[in-house]
Structures are given as C-alpha cells and as structure tokens.
Task: inverse folding
C-alpha cells in the first residue's frame, strides 16, 4: 500500500526570507536546486544546529512582542515553522534515499533531534500564550484564511496539552521524545531490512527468463532479494507453492522480530500520552482534527464496509478455490494466502482470456511516464517539462518542472527503482514548501520515491497495470503538493485533514481504467501498437474481479491500526500478533502464524489511527470523479475547475466546502459503492 510521507507537527509552514546568509546548502531558501553530491554528515549536523539556534531566537522575539500585529506574530510564527519544516523535509529525503551509510545514519539521528525540538514547540507555554493573546485582541481583523490558520495553530497547541497545568504537561515532553525515537526506529528497521532466498531453477518454474537470468549465480543457483517487485514476480508466477509461501513469508517478516518490541512500546507511549491529555484513547486524540472527528464514526464506517463486502469476499474465495481445484487437483483444497495472487492471475487468463503478462508489454516505463504526463497535462491544463539543471542523489533519478498558465509552479524528482537501504515502498516526499514574501516566491519541490520493477539487459522496465495505477496515485500526491501555492505557506496541500489527503491522488487513479486516456500512451514496447480496444475491454471486464477481497484487506489493515490505537488494553492483553491474526480472518483465508507483516507495516508508525483514511478518502475521490464521468473523462474545463477548487486551494478551505463547491451538491457514497459493484 502507498504511504504518504508525513511531517507531523513540522508540516506547519510559513513565510520566509528569500535568502539566508548561510553557506549551508540545506538552509538556502531560493529556487536553486540542491547539489546533493555536496551533502555529507557535517552538512546535516550543522544545518540542524543552526536552525535550532535561530528558532530559539525567533521564539524569544515573538514572545517578547508588546504590540502584536499580524506581521510580528502570525507571520513570525509561520516563519519559525517554515524553517523547521523545510529542513525536516530535506533530511527526511536524505535518510530515505542516500546509499552512503554515514550520511544516512546522520540524517536519521538529526531528523530525530529536529523532530523532538519541533514537537516540543507545541509544549512551549509562553509561545502559546502569546498566540492566544493575539487571537483575543480587541479589533483584530483577519482574513478568512488567517482565522482558519490561527484557530488550527491554537488547536495544535491545545492538542499537545496547553490546557493542562505546567506540572501535568512536564511528562508529555519526554513521552513525545520517546514516540519520535520509536517511530524513527520502526521506519529504519524496515528500510534497512536485508534478506534474500536461494532457489533452484525448478523451484522458480513459471518465472520469466529475464528475471531468472538476473538472479542466476555462477554455481547455478538463483538468489532473489526480498523486495516489492520480486515478491510480485514470485507470488504471481511461481508454480511451486512452497516457493510462493517461502518468499511471501520472508517478505512479510521484514524487520521481524525487532519491530515487535518497537511497536509494543510505540503503542504503550501513545496510549499514555493520550490518557494524560484526557482522551479515552490515542485514536480519540488523533481524530479531533480529522473529518471523522470521533472513533465511533470510524468504527461505523468500517463495520458498514465489512457488512457490504463480506458477501462479495465469500463468493470470490469460493470461486477462486473451485478454480484452484480444477487446475491443480493434486494440491490442497484450501486456498492459502500465497495462492491468492497466483490463481487470480491464472483465472483471469483462463476465464477472461486476460494475460497480464501481455498487458504489461503496453506499459514500458518511459512511455508510461510520458503518457501519464500527457493525461495530467490534458485533464488539469498544466505542462510538465524535463529539467536538466537539477543535481540528483542517484544517477537514475529523473528531474522535471510543472507549469500552469505560463508560470512555473515547482519542480520534482522521480526515483523509480529499488536499491539497497532505500525506502521500500511508494511515496511522495515533499522537499520544500511554497512561500512568498513581497514579490519573491520560493517554489515547492517534491520527489516520488518508488520501487517499480527495473529492466534487465534484454528487456526494459515493463509495468503491470496495478503498478501503473500506483504511479498515477503517487503522482497525484506530487501534483497536489506543487500546485498548492497558498498565501499562508502553512496552508499547503498536505495540511489538509489526514483522512482526506488521499482523495486527490485516489481520484486520479481512475484514468488508468479509461480507454480515452490509455490509448494516448499504452503502446507495445516492441511493435509500437496501441493497446487494442478488445484487450482493454477484457481489462475493464475484470476490474471488479476480487474487488471485495482487495477492499476487505484494506478494511482489515485499517481495523488493525485502529484497534491498536483505540482498544489498547485489549491489544496489550492479546498481543499485537493475535489482534492482527483475528482481524485478518476477514480475508476468509487461513492465517499462517509465521506471518509478522505488522513489523513492516510502515503506516503503523506514520499513520497511527489514520489508515482508515484511505477508504474514507476513496468515497470522496469517486464522488468527484463522477463529475468527469458525466462531462467526459478528458474534459479539460472540468479538470481546470478541479485544479482550482481542490488542488490549488491547499488547506486554506475546509475540505467539505471544497468538495461541495466542485460537485455543486453535498457529497455521497453512491459512486464509491457503484465502483465496487454494490447497490445501495
């Protein structure tokens, strides 16, 4: 599952001076790209030390102000948070992408230090009192956006305990420090997990020749590294069930056992933190600034989905089990988790004559990228141009700019393929925020950090269609970030509520299922032939095959996360593994007790009590797409309206107001349920 890179409290940004006097390249605030080849551990350490020292001075000055104004209080607070967030973003990218171990470890250490410092600002009583005093001034005149920003800033302080006494607040600082350390440890253990399995050629029967050649060793054995692209190759194609089982379990056991202890501690301290703030659970604490607002709303949402999806799942498992018996009569009659992808693929081929290996030949990486850009350009009325003057952290990273209405909006990096010690999933990493001071603008930057299958010596990178969907999704996050040029920098695009932040990217996945979009770029990598309409029709016909099983897995992951955070005592009593096992029964397949997938479930660190947001967001995403279904999926006028009403608004406007204005009505779940084949 995709994960959006979050910055927590540090996502609060602000206006900034156009140019710092420092020579440290991580502290520059201009539109010159960073030369990543010049970054070392000293660069990172010095940058953090400078920002912490300057932030102390900014806080001191803000608190000392006698005659408060928007400029010396509200904008000054923005400036403080901007500096912290800007550096935090850059260090976050370094720790997730750099191959050099010394630099990467320094980034982890300094990121933790900066996170602790930034979070402790939320416990700074004099600063809170200064902002509170500013908010209660007689005759204070603020714009609607400024009012929204100020109220959210005060809420963030109060959420961190500012309504408690100083004595009651004191323990929160140490607990928060522990939470940051544990979160970093959880992520680091996943990123640095190294594993591989050795197989014989017979054990890898069914795998394509190009992959086999790349895995082959001089002794005739095959060494397969445990990563995302390889687990798809093995679980989809390996005929040997033992091979699929072994590789799948190794993949699901990344960062095991070390992350069990880390997770136990993380959940413990989160619960203690929430209890000290007067909340019944960490989930209740987390939801006060989300659309869902209260845990009972999330439980109702998830349980309603379970009720609607369970009959679909039952039918799907029954159908796939029968198919397994038909084509593999000598194997066990039970459908195992490591059977699901393999027999689903075979069933699509046999029952629907859909060969996904044939489909991916129409989605060569470079052509798919260019085609995706074309779709985004057409729908949103933007332009995407290659950039040649941007130094990169790895030679395979690509660089581009986004333009809109004749104006450059920002720049971005694409880091597409796996490598050692790199972030192991798919995410949009913001690198700098938009800001404007006078006539000087600092344009935003972002990077997509992905792990798509890389090409071999004899075959280019060919993407399964589900990888194309992932690419469109992640690029949706990136475009959202770059187009949000908010007057108040803290009201950037990722400042929207956590259970809506996925909607703008999920919305753009839909174009992967529209022939008017795919025919623009889906070309056979050898012949150049456009994806045939009859092949697309087969793809479309199978879009809902096993859709219940896909979404029930999302529900089960959301419930695992939410149970951990809302029912801590139950979780503690049973243990995180037993809770995970019980909830996973929703998938209606046997659970292997050697499966410790929660150890590599990175969202448990960064998305605590918010994984439900993927499906919550999906309801809004499908509702917004229904407007395009009505007006035409490639209709630029509708797309420009969407860009202006949703993407460019950032977090300046309440989410429900943005959606209602774009829809011209109140949102509903009709389109979402229809996409699942469920009638109301």
Result:
């Amino acid at each position: 599952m995709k994960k959006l890179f979050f910055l927590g409290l540090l996502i609060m940004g602000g206006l900034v001076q156009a140019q710092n006097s420092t020579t440290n390249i991580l502290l520059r605030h201009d539109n010159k790209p960073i030369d990543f080849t010049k970054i070392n551990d000293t660069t990172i350490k010095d940058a953090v030390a400078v920002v912490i020292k300057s932030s102390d001075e900014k806080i001191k000055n803000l608190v000392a102000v006698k005659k408060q104004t928007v400029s010396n209080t509200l904008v000054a607070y923005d400036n403080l948070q901007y500096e912290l967030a800007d550096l935090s973003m850059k260090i976050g990218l370094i720790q997730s992408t750099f191959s050099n171990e010394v630099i990467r470890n320094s980034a982890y250490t300094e990121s933790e230090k900066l996170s602790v410092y930034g979070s402790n600002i939320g416990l700074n009583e004099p600063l809170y009192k200064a902002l509170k005093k500013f908010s209660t001034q007689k005759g204070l005149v603020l714009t609607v956006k400024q009012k929204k920003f100020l109220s959210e800033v005060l809420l963030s302080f109060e959420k961190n305990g500012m309504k408690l006494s100083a004595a009651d607040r004191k323990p929160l600082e140490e607990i928060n420090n522990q939470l940051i350390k544990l979160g970093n440890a959880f992520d680091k253990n996943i990123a640095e997990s190294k594993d591989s399995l050795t197989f014989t050629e017979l054990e890898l029967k069914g795998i394509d020749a190009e992959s086999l050649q790349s895995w082959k060793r001089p002794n005739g054995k095959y060494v397969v590294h445990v990563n995302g692209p390889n687990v798809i190759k093995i679980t989809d194609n390996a005929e040997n069930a033992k091979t699929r089982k072994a590789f799948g379990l190794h993949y699901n056991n990344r960062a095991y056992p070390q992350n069990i202890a880390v997770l136990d501690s993380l959940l413990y301290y989160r619960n203690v933190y929430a209890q000290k703030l007067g909340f019944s659970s960490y989930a209740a604490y987390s939801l006060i600034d989300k659309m869902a607002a209260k845990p009972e709303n999330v439980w109702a949402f998830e349980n309603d989905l379970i009720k609607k999806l369970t009959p679909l799942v039952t039918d799907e498992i029954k159908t796939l089990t029968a198919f397994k018996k038909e084509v593999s009569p000598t194997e066990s009659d039970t459908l195992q988790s490591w059977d699901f992808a393999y027999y689903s693929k075979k069933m699509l081929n046999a029952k629907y004559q859909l060969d996904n290996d044939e489909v991916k030949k129409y989605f060569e990486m470079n052509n798919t990228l260019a085609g995706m850009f074309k779709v985004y350009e057409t729908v949103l009325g933007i332009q995407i141009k290659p950039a040649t003057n941007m130094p990169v952290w790895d030679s395979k990273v690509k660089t581009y700019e986004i333009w809109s209405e004749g104006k450059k909006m920002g720049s971005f990096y694409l880091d597409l393929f796996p490598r050692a010690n790199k972030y192991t999933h798919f995410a949009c990493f913001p690198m700098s925020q938009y800001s404007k001071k006078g006539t000087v603008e600092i344009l935003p930057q972002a990077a997509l950090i992905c792990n798509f299958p890389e090409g071999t010596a004899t075959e280019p990178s060919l993407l399964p269609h589900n990888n194309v969907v992932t690419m469109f999704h992640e690029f949706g996050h990136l475009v959202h970030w770059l187009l949000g040029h908010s007057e108040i920098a803290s009201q950037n695009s990722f400042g929207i509520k956590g259970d809506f932040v996925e909607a703008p990217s999920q919305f753009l996945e839909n174009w992967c299922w529209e022939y008017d979009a795919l025919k623009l770029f889906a070309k056979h990598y050898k012949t150049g032939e456009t994806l045939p309409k009859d092949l697309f029709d087969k793809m479309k016909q199978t879009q809902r095959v096993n859709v219940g099983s896909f979404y029930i897995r999302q529900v089960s992951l959301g419930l695992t996360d939410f149970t951990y955070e809302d029912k801590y005592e139950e979780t503690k009593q049973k243990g995180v593994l037993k809770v995970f096992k019980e909830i996973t029964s929703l998938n209606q397949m046997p659970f292997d007790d050697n499966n410790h997938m929660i150890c590599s479930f990175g969202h448990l660190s960064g998305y605590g009590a918010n994984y439900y947001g993927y499906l919550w967001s999906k309801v809004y995403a499908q509702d917004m797409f229904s407007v395009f279904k009505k007006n035409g999926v490639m209709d630029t006028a509708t797309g420009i309206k969407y860009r202006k009403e949703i993407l460019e608004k950032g977090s300046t406007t309440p989410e429900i107001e943005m959606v209602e204005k774009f829809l011209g009505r109140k949102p509903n779940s009709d389109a979402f349920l229809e996409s699942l084949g469920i009638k109301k």
About this structure: The first strand starts at residue 196 and ends at 199. Residues 556 and 584 are 6 Å apart (CA to CA). The first helix runs from residue 41 to 64.
